Every structure is written in structure tokens, then in C-alpha cells.
From TrEMBL:
Domain of life: Bacteria
Stated family: Belongs to the metallo-beta-lactamase superfamily. Type III sulfatase family.
Protein name per its UniProtKB record: Alkyl sulfatase dimerization domain-containing protein
Lineage of origin: Bacteria, Pseudomonadati, Pseudomonadota, Gammaproteobacteria, Alteromonadales
Keywords, ordered alphabetically: Hydrolase, Metal-binding, Signal, Zinc
Length: 658
């Protein structure tokens, strides 16, 4: 199926258009263009992408295999077995951009063998677990995104060998790369050293951040990124960019017992397999890649985010990702003598020249985006201007590993600006803008009132200016969140816009936003980062540290109170001190704490696992003497805990209607 997309059109004479009540004719438009920087090849809008992605790519170096499962001639790589299933939506539809449909068709479920002893569980979820078979055991790289997903891959791997597990390598801290660990190993195997879990030494702290400090928000925004509140298929998610679909299930975590220092290399032989495990800061600072020197195989982890332009910033939300650190990390990988490259996401690549082609193009695209953004920032351009001039040149825009299905140049450019300079674009009104609600009311009045905004939005949608319509409809919705006409009109704009997107994240956000506007969010498939298993596996300090950010400051500005925990089994002690609106964590039991508790980390784990039934667990442990108040008592304990906030339910957390 082919689509001829309209050019992005922007209104001219905006003021006169908005101030004419009852305006209903098509909004006057001019083509958005720029005479600065590269000729428009890619942009913030899919309409600028005039790239024939339907043609099978073959430049004589990077050859897409006829099986559609890998890149190369198949001299070492072969498809060992296929299940006949795909988790992606592969049918043609007028509601799905054909480039996204083609992307989905790369994701058939299969076991791919890349050498005599290296196997990929491809297409079973968003992540690709890897099994390396050694002399007397196996090594798993990235166990999968959930226990259930990992079990499905394990079933396939165990058809190949029943050798015992010797090691698991976490490529980095993200949920899809660690959460299936309990399908493979137990706490006892890891604590005894029977199984090594290898990771960079910052991984556990990073897991604590996404699982606790901002777990509620990250989980919610990730659900929007994956369109989890709408149906799957042509009116919802069709793939997840990196892979066919994130397979939500039990989230597990076992803390690593073998650590790699920052920017260090671990040379290790496991089950007779010699490996170099190298910290390559990139997407995350704790990212590690695995190189098998005797076989010249490189596991590139997620330094390359599959066959997609990378998320130099992810719109689901994350800390600043340094693009300069990222492309320099790829340069480290280019030094390896690699004949086969496998990844956590995307299809494997065979052939030295082909691997070099992909690595070079990928790092060049990142450096180009970074450097040209910096260049134009130094000319005084702000984010809205930068996205119009920073474009990939044709040879990168058309490279098959740089399609903007996952990351985009446009949202990367905006984050590079913020990462280096911050939110302030140098116009002082931004330092003290009108209050949010008042500002919306003022804009509605300035635009000629609510009815004129509705009329103008309808005309903008008719002229296919979908995001302009959505933008102006935000103001009447902010003024009256129950304005269902405005909400439904904005939802219609987002649905129409979503069908034109080649970027899955942009599409998914639009569809989830529409569901929120229409009051039709389905929470049955919600992505949640909350996991008791993760919490109980975290070091005690991080459990208490996450509490400090939940203090209800306005209720405690006049409060000075402290509560200490002492753990007999781990010989640890912690005190949380509330002091005039802040909560400070001390890694000792303060002598003057108002409430002193003597217990064990094992009991704390029971409390964490009990969730809403935690008080009953505390009561039973008080009865058997495993939870004792050495100072204060249950009343003081209850008062202290009342000063800390509860998580907002996903149903009450609104991102669009605000």
C-alpha cells in the first residue's frame, strides 16, 4: 500500500484567523520550509520523509537476507526455527503508515543461530535474550522483560541444550533487560556463587531510581509510549519500535554479584567461553557490551537501538542522555575485530564490512545531530527553530538502520538544547509566566473565545493541521476539563495525526492521549514499574532513601521527628529524620530518635511484599517478637508514617486533560 502524504502546513495570518468569530473556511496555509541547514530530508513531521523504505536495501555491503531475519549472506547466521507467530501487527491499514507496517514485518518470532554456540530468542518480546553455550554450561545475556517472556524463550533454548546456567549478564538497568531473571536463576544460586550475575556497578542504583523514586510517573508515561490504554492493532499499537511488543508480566530482579567499574573491561572465561565485557556509556551509563574474541562476535547491547534512529532522548522521560558520550562509545566498539554483531534489539548483522557500515552510520548520525544542534545553538536558535534546521543528510536519512521509528532527530534536538542550556530560552517572561490556569483563560479570551477556538480547530483539522488544532484546543480544556466537545475534537486531531506517523512513539502517545481525552483509557494492560520483587532485592539504603521524596512537606514544616530501624540479620541501621519540611536519611540509628524499631531486613521484606496488608504483617511480627519498639510505639509509628504521601493511582494521573 502506498500513501501520498501532504506537506505540513502552517497557518498564516494567525491573529486575524483566530479573532474572527465563527470562522469556518479552510485555514490559510503556507508550506513550512527553511533555507538554513540541510535540505529537508527528515523532520519533526513524517510528511517530510520522502524515503522509499519498501525497496529491499542492498548496497553491496549491507545486504538484507531473503529470510527477512538478518543482514548478510547467511555464511554463519541461520534461522534455526520459527514459531510461525509474530507479536507485531503486520496487516496493511489506512490507519498505519506503510513504513511502520514494513518495520513490523521484521519481527517474526524465531530462534536465530549466529554461530555454533550462540543463539538469539528473537521476536518473543521487545528484548532479544541471547544464549551462549559453553563446554559445561550456558551464559544468558539479557534474560528478558518479564518472567513469563523469559520462560517462553527458555523453553526454546532448552530444546538446544540442557547444560546448567553458569552466568547471566545484564546489559543495562532497563526493565526489559533484567526482569526475566527469575525464569533462569534463584537467590540461592546467586548468593552461593553457583551463578554469576554480571553488570556494571551503577546498575542497582539505576534500578532503584526507576522502580521507586519516579516509578509511578515512569510507569504511567511508558504506558502512553506503548499505547497500552488502547486496543492493539490498526487503531492502537502495531509494534514497539525496538521489537514487536513489550510483554508485561512478573518483574523480577536479583542483585548482581560480579561488578564492572566505570569505563572498565572485565576479561573473563565462563564455561570455556572467553569474553570481554566492556562498560560503554551510551543510552545508559551502566551499559555493557560483550565481545567474544575467538569468534569475533560482538553483542552491542542497546548502544544501537535496533534498526531505528536512537532515542537520544526518550519522550517517556529519563535523565539527560549525553549524545557525545554515546557516539564515542560506539567508537570503542568499532575497534573490535567483529564479523558478527548481535543486539538487544534488531536483527543480527553478518560480515566485517557490513558491521562497520552499521556502526559508522549510527555513530555519525548521533554526532551529526549533536554537533549541528550545538552549532545552531551558538547562533542563538531556540528549540522550535532548531528542529527546522537540524536534519540528517540524505545518506544517513536513507540508511536502513536510521529510520525514525523509535527516536527522532526532532525530539533529540530539543533535549540536547535542554541538556546543555536548560529550559530557559533567554526571554525573561519565561522566568515568571502567568499562572497556568490564568494563562489558559487569557489565551481563550485573546483568541476570541471558546467557540472561535472550536471553529478554528475544525478548520485546522480540515486543512490537516492536526497538531495546531490540538495545541489551541488545550486552552479551553484547561479552563473547563469537562468540555467534551473540545476534548473529542482534540482526540480526533490526534487520531488523524497518528495515522501519518512513521515514529511508533509519536503514534502511540497520540492514541493514548486521544483515549484520555475521550475518557476511554483501558487500564487492564497498564505497564507498571512497581515490583515487590525488585524492592525486596534492593539494598536497604535505597529502600529508605526513596521514602524521603514522598514527604508531605506542607504538613511537616513545623515537625521535628525521627524514626530508626535496626536490622539484626544484616547489622544495618537507618534513621529517617523529619526536619521542618524535609526528610533526611542517616545510615545509623540516632540515639534521640522518637521511634526506634528493632527488626530484620527479612521482616521488612515481608512488609514490602504485603502491600495493603502490611499492618497485619507488622502486628504478627510484633506478637512473635520480630518487630519491637524500643522507643515510641505503634501510635508514634503511625503518626510518623502519616507524614508520607501515597502514590497517585494511574486512573487519577492525567497527562493531557489538565
Amino acid at each position: 500500500m502506498t500513501k501520498r502524504f501532504k506537506q505540513l502546513l502552517l497557518p498564516v495570518a494567525i491573529t486575524s484567523t483566530l479573532l474572527v468569530a465563527g470562522y469556518s473556511a479552510a485555514t490559510p496555509v503556507v508550506e513550512a520550509s527553511s533555507t538554513v541547514g540541510q535540505e529537508l530530508q527528515t523532520s519533526a513531521a513524517s510528511q517530510y520523509q520522502d524515503i522509499d523504505m519498501d525497496a529491499r536495501y542492498n548496497d553491496g555491503v549491507l545486504i538484507e537476507h531473503s529470510s527477512n531475519m538478518f543482514w548478510g549472506k547467511g555464511e554463519r547466521i541461520k534461522v534455526l526455527s520459527k514459531t510461525g507467530e509474530t507479536l507485531a501487527y503486520t496487516a496493511e491499514s489506512e490507519h498505519v503508515h506503510p513504513i511502520l507496517t514494513k518495520h513490523s514485518r521484521k519481527m517474526d518470532q524465531a530462534i536465530i543461530q549466529v554461530d555454533d554456540n550462540v543463539y538469539l530468542g528473537y521476536g518473543f518480546g521487545i528484548d532479544t535474550p541471547v544464549m551462549i553455550e559453553g563446554d559445561d554450561g550456558i551464559i544468558i545475556v539479557d534474560p528478558g522483560e518479564s518472567v513469563e517472556m523469559a520462560e517462553s524463550v527458555k523453553e526454546q533454548f532448552r530444546k538446544i541444550t540442557d547444560k546448567p546456567l553458569k552466568a547471566i549478564i545484564y546489559s543495562h538497568n532497563h526493565i526489559d533487560h533484567i526482569s526475566g531473571v527469575r525464569a533462569w536463576a534463584t537467590d540461592e544460586q546467586v548468593s552461593s556463587g553457583e551463578v554469576k550475575i554480571i553488570a556494571q556497578d551503577g546498575l542497582t542504583a539505576a534500578v532503584a531510581n526507576w522502580s521507586s523514586n519516579l516509578g509511578s510517573l515512569f510507569g504511567h508515561r511508558t504506558s502512553y509510549t506503548g499505547a497500552k490504554h488502547v486496543e492493539e492493532g490498526e487503531h492502537g499499537t502495531v509494534n514497539d519500535g525496538l521489537g514487536p511488543r513489550f510483554m508485561q508480566g512478573a518483574i523480577s530482579f536479583i542483585e548482581p554479584n560480579t561488578l564492572i567499574a566505570t569505563n572498565a573491561t572485565l576479561d573473563i572465561t565462563i564455561a570455556g567461553v572467553r569474553m570481554q565485557i566492556v562498560n560503554v556509556p551510551s543510552e545508559t551509563k551502566d551499559e555493557v557490551v560483550v565481545y567474544l574474541p575467538e569468534q569475533k562476535i560482538l553483542h552491542a547491547a542497546e548502544v544501537l537501538q535496533g534498526e531505528n534512529f536512537p532515542n537520544l532522548h526518550t519522550i517517556r522521560g529519563t535523565k539527560f542522555r549525553d549524545p557525545a558520550m554515546w557516539f564515542k562509545g560506539i567508537d570503542v566498539m568499532r575497534q573490535f575485530d567483529t564479523e558478527i554483531m548481535i543486539n538487544s534489539h534488531g536483527r543480527p548483522v553478518e560480515g566485517k564490512a557490513a558491521v562497520a557500515n552499521v556502526l559508522t552510520a549510527y555513530r555519525d548520525a548521533i554526532q551529526y545531530t549533536h554537533d549541528q544542534t550545538i552549532r545552531y545553538m551558538n547562533k542563538g536558535l531556540t528549540p522550535d527553530e532548531l528542529v527546522e534546521v537540524v536534519k540528517l543528510p540524505k545518506h544517513l536519512a536513507e540508511h536502513p538502520w536510521l529510520g525514525e521509528h523509535y527516536g527522532t532527530v526532532a525530539h533529540a534536538v530539543r533535549q540536547i538544547y535542554v541538556g546543555y542550556v536548560g529550559f530557559y530560552e533567554a526571554d525573561p517572561w519565561q522566568l515568571e509566566p502567568m499562572a497556568y490556569q490564568q494563562r489558559a483563560k487569557a489565551f481563550v479570551e485573546l483568541m476570541g473565545g471558546r467557540d472561535n477556538i472550536i471553529s478554528t480547530a475544525k478548520a485546522a483539522i480540515e486543512a490537516k493541521n492536526y497538531t495546531f488544532a490540538a495545541e489551541i484546543l488545550s486552552y479551553p480544556i484547561t479552563v473547563n476539563k469537562d468540555d467534551m466537545q473540545a476534548r473529542q475534537l482534540k482526540a480526533a486531531a490526534y487520531k488523524a495525526w497518528s495515522a501519518e506517523q512513521v515514529n511508533i512513539n509519536w503514534r502511540n502517545w497520540a492514541l493514548n492521549a486521544a483515549a484520555e481525552l475521550e475518557g476511554k483509557r483501558d487500564f487492564s494492560n497498564l505497564i507498571s514499574f512497581a515490583s515487590v520483587d525488585v524492592l525486596t532485592a534492593l539494598p536497604s539504603k535505597q529502600i529508605f532513601d526513596m521514602m524521603t521524596a514522598t514527604l508531605i512537606a506542607e504538613n511537616t514544616v513545623d515537625v521535628n521527628m525521627a524514626m530508626s530501624y535496626s536490622f539484626a540479620d544484616t547489622e544495618e541501621a537507618f534513621t529517617i529524620e523529619i526536619r521542618n519540611g524535609i526528610a533526611q536519611l542517616h545510615t545509623e540509628a540516632l540515639a534521640d530518635a522518637d521511634v526506634k524499631i528493632a527488626t530484620s531486613r527479612a521482616v521488612l521484606n515481608q512488609i514490602l511484599m504485603a502491600g495493603p496488608n502490611s499492618l497485619q504483617v507488622i502486628a504478627s511480627n510484633m506478637e512473635n517478637g520480630n518487630f519491637k519498639f524500643e522507643q515510641g510505639g505503634i501510635k508514634g509509628f503511625g503518626l510518623f508514617m502519616s507524614y508520607f504521601d501515597q502514590a497517585t493511582s494511574p486512573q487519577d494521573l492525567m497527562l493531557i486533560v489538565r
